[in-house]
Amino acid sequence: MNKVRLGIIGMGNIGKHHAGYLLESKVPRCELTAVCSTSPQKLEAYKTKGLRIFDDAGKLIQSREVDGVIVATPHYQHTTLGIAALEAGLHLMVEKPISAHKADAERLIAVAKKHPNSKFSAMFQLRVEPRYQKIHELIRNGDLGEIVRMSWLITDWFRTEAYYASGGWRATWRGEGGGVLLNQCLHNLDVIAWLLGMPARVRGFCQLGRYHHIEVEDNVTAYLEYPNQATGVFVTSTGETPGTNRFEIAGTRGQVVLEHNKLTLTRNDADMILFSRAATTGFDHPGLEHVDISIGNAATPHATLMQNFVDAILDGAPLLVPGEEGLHSVELANVMLYSSLIGQTVELPMDGAAFEKKLQQLIAESKFEKKVVEITGDDFTKSFHR
Length: 386
Description:
Elements (H helix, E strand, L loop, with lengths): L3 E6 L3 H11 L6 E7 L15 E3 L2 H5 L6 E4 L5 H11 L3 E4 L7 H12 L6 E3 L7 H11 L6 E8 L6 H4 L21 H11 L4 E8 L8 E9 L5 E7 L7 E7 L2 E6 L2 E7 L3 H7 L9 E6 L7 H15 L10 H17 L3 E2 L4 H14 L11 H8 L2
Parallel strand pairs: 1-2, 1-4, 2-3, 4-5, 5-6, 7-10
Antiparallel strand pairs: 7-11, 8-9, 8-15, 9-10, 11-12, 12-13, 13-14
Helix pairs in contact: 3-4, 4-10, 4-11, 5-7, 7-10
């Protein structure tokens, strides 16, 4: 095989985005050959482009028209469609989240392990953004010393009522399985896990429908504690404007701050703990060096990850985001919400079955209804590229 034939399952906003760059040949050695949606109007634009059109995902998976699929459907379908693709011998790229909750993610990962010849990746494109790659490098190279604290205040996810009314599945327990944590913040939670590893315990405080007519969380504050006693605070909301996006990581040798697309490193000229123990005066402190690090944006982050997926299939290249690592962001989203729902600190790894049971209870007890309206592609694009 010298070219990967891809199919997209789910032609909503993100499915259309993937189709756009694939049809523009931005991923060498890859060809978009099929698309699938249960909404006929979403397929009209592709009928004249030489693609196979499917209204049933199972038919696409069994069609022999593709070597791999991108699953870009509502959250709850990711697990069943992913398993079906893997069992059919296809390669699998799953949009975030890889599953709506941890127990389902574990089921998908278990099937993937039974099919080692099928490449399984997750679409977490922030990992190819230069700003996060640089922070990753600083941590791995020891520039920050031992990590002692993390905070991410990310409240610039402002969404209107029209956004939540744009799909019947949006912001419902039954359709999405959560709110701002599982939808908007999955990429940020993936970055936290990728950079710092998983915490040992979490206490979440989530407000359900604080700013919108929805039944899931749209305002969150969470406390994280790591095995080395480092601490973290994660704050997010879809109800604030103008909002803030400030990511800060402090270590014994300095701190790095990402805000307004500016990355600033402040170095201590000595380890702060060792300096404190050796100092002979009460108000002395290590010397400081401030470094502004120039960063840009990845030109085509989704296409970059897709290229890695293709290279893994054709050349055996290591995956930048192995699918099983998608479990971490799902678990963080779930545990912050679960901790809030039960009013307790939760130790990690969390009990996925216990959260699944709680989620099923929320679905069964839900009496929520909402009016669905259409949101335009332009609105999505403006939000997506902000």
